[in-house]
Amino acid sequence: MKKILVPLISAIVIGLILGKYLFSQYEKKVDTVFQDDERIYVLQQGVYSTAENAGKYTSNLDYYIVHHDDKYYRVYVAITHNKNNVDILEEYYISKGNDIYVRELTTNNLEFLELLKQYDLLLQSSGDNELLQIEKQVLSKYEELILQSE
Questions:
Q1: Could you write out the three-class secondary structure of 27-92?
Q2: Do 100 and 93 touch, CB atoms closer than 8 A?
């Protein structure tokens, strides 16, 4: 009985030590497979049932994009990642006579998010003239990087 018990206990102890060592090696090498979506704020001028209506009611806007989802045409005039910039942009477009609705969307496009964060820094220190140019670039990048890939 003692002849079987000593090798059995030795095998269990050696197995536990080797198992712990192997698992500790894999715990250190965890790669993220899925990335979390980040929230962005989209300032929407209107929602229309037809493309003609979207074009008709946006004549006073300098630059915008129209995103067609399942059944609506949504007119976006600005996009930001920073909640403080939402107030600046919303105030600007309301002062120009537009009704603005702020939507929260999510995206995991890292290239667009990095560009958006850089544009947000510029937006915080810009005036009305620069604001339009910055948002024009943001919207064109959104159209290129997000909408084209859908």
A1: HCCCCCCCCCCEEEEEEEEEEECCHHHHHHCCCCCCCCEEEECCCCEEEEEEEECCHHHHHHHHHH
A2: yes
> Model-level pTM?
0.71
Looking at this protein, which amino acid is placed at residue 69? D
Q: Which of 74, 105, 106, 79 is nearest to 90 (CA)?
A: 79
pLDDT, mean of each 10-residue run, the chain (150 residues): 80 89 71 72 91 83 87 92 90 88 90 90 82 87 80
Do 113 and 129 lie in a common domain?
A: yes
Asked if residue 72 lies in contact with residue 47, where contact means CB atoms within 8 angstroms, the answer is yes
How many structural domains compose the chain? Answer: 2
Give, rounded to a whole angstrom, the gap between the first and last alpha carbons of the chain: 70
Range of the domain at 133: 38-147
